[in-house]
Description:
This protein has 364 residues and is an alpha/beta fold. It has helices at residues 2-13, 25-32, 62-69, 96-107, 129-137, 153-161, 165-173, 213-223, 242-257, 273-281, 285-290, 345-354, and strands at 39-42, 56-59, 80-87, 115-120, 146-148, 188-193, 200-202, 210-212, 229-234, 265-268, 293-295, 318-322, 338-342. The chain contains 12 helices and 13 strands. Helix 5 links the parallel strand 4 (115-120) and strand 5. The radius of gyration is 20 Å and the shape is globular.
Amino acid sequence: NRALLSSGINAEYGAGFWKPGSGIIHQIILENYAYPGIMLIGTDSHTVNGGGLGGVFVGVGGADAVDVMAGIPWELKCPKVIGVHLTGEISAWTSPKDVILKVADILTVKGGTGAIVEYFGSGVHSLSCTGMGTICNMGAEIGATTSIFPYNERMARYLHATDRGEIAKIADNYKHLLASDEGAEYDEVIEINLSELKPLINGPFTPDLCTPVSEIGARAEQEGWPTEVKVGLIGSCTNSSYEDMTRSSSIARQAQSKGIKFKSLFTITPGSEQIRATIERDGIDQPLRDIGGLVLANACGPCIGQWDRQDIPKNEKNTIVTSYNRNFTGRNDANPNTHGFVASPEIATALALAGTLKFNPETD
Length: 364
């Protein structure tokens, strides 16, 4: 069947086939197919990840995709537009993931329904392209039709780094068409100062229950959530880029220099074979392995429940911290008593090193 897919059907219909092990399709799209100004639909809610490269990417049902493949125009109700005005700059332990965790806190899991979320403002320029992808990816968790960033130099750098420099040159010539119009009006505007934004952690059981990392230990004790972190997991289509892996690896190197290893189990899921090969080439994965991390296959893995978890008895009450996008009951391991918390890869790494939610990496 695989041979049939990779040869005969592809040749006849012009379809692409990414073999098992190639990676998560959203990361593959960002690396190979996405470009500023494109409109693309895909049969998964996290198709919206591509908004990090300045296109309109929408997750749809299978019937809609088949219509488009058959040449039938795709239709949807005209969405509202929610503007998120970013000012200041990302720094220290704060990451692009914290932007969308804050937006989820403000809008909740339903607040983006029927709307496109458009990010704008001077703060956009302090975010990497893959960081913008992270923010757009989790727009699915607020119900948004899609999210989008204006084309800028960070996207151009990513296009050059992924051997698509010619596209960047064309986009540079049409930059005025790939950003919001001057004086554009929005149905709603959210203000976020990145210089004031602190590291956040959302959960358990819902991606919009937001707590500063500095306060999560005390809140967990108050709410009766387990404070011991059993497993830390980084990766998924939300946070599995080269940048994500390097930030966690940097923390691992610092821990290694002090003779510290993970107190929790820790897994790493590269987003694509390109990411896996590149972090192996550059020695990015080794510090994580050296302090007890386990590199999994280039796939969704535990993020969508593909996890043969054996470290605890079934249905035991426990806490895990991930860099994933969803943490609904039973999402990762089919255990309704697993308290899943969502954070950035570097926060997930730090809390797995400490083995507890009561650790604050900004001060401890």
